[in-house]
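ZP: hey, is the zinc ion complex queued? I don't see it on the tracker
AM: it wasn't, my bad. submitting now with these inputs:
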Amino acid sequence: MDHIDAVRTPASWVVVGLDNGGTCNNATVLDATGQFLVDRLVENPSRVQDGPESAVEALAEAFTGILTLTSTPSSLVRAVGLDTPGPASADGVISSKGSTNFSQVSWHGFDIRGALEARIGLPVVYNNDANAAALYAHHRHFGADAAHRSSVAAIVGTGLGGGVVEWGKVVSGAAGMAGELGHVQIPLQDVLEQGQPIPVCNCGFEGDVESIASLTGITKNLLPYWLSRYPDHPLAAEPIGKAAKMLRGYGEKDDPLALAVFGQQAKAIGKLFTIAANFTDPSAYFLGGGVVEAAPHFRQWFLNTVREHTKLRREQQAAATFALVPDLDMAGARGAAVAALETVPPQ
Ligand SMILES: [Zn+2]
């Protein structure tokens, strides 16, 4: 091989990252040196509710759209990274039971990675959205050292997504279900109050992380309990789903009920990270989700509370860092692109 041909320059080639969501796709372009050519959200409707055919077409439009926007000739694209909400197999086959985003029967067992690859004629690399965000957080945080570091990420949203990154690569597992950190069961002593009902997750598990540290967990488990303790709270007059969404605003104003709920979430994530510490002993613990967008004093309090409840040995304390997942709304597309970049062999 001619050594000079292996040198990567910004103009030599690119990969594209496509993040598929319930309403929108988000697209980005990453050049051969690891620089993103897009510094903002570039979205188009994802049309997942119209079924696989429309959705794959919408992804193809996102692909051509981002190339046009960045004036990138399609001949320079070596690979495409795709991420979608799970559950799906490690190579992008949507669960045979469907999922929240892919509820139509035509989606069940659909190979979205293969379909996009066939449509655009380029290699497509798949990750679920939480894994893609975890991968982006890892590479953004560690930069040139990414390939020599490990991390775990917990992303609090409707559910609790996550990812485990080992030596710069996502751990995907035999069935693509590694890093489902939301469904790790945690010890509940010091998390729950005396007499507080055991939280139950949509997956059927009792007392897993998502049953506490997610919007669903607030709505179904934490808020009903805490409203019974604070019956005169203004949120008691709201429908529970609306009240759950309003809770962060109260947390930012140091409302005692809201701090009790978010304190339980932070403790639950600390318990999860304690398990991670004894499992992969990562270099970094990343936290993402709605809390990252909250007022700075509130998100710092949340991160500190997580850290306080993560029991690390002294050697681990010296070696590990805690950080928020940056650029969260772009993290999926960017992580998908990073995963694609890594598959491109030296030219
Ligand atoms: Zn669960």
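AM: back. Residues 182-183, 201, 203, 205, 208, 210 surround zinc ion (CB under 6 Å).
ZP: great, adding it to the tracker
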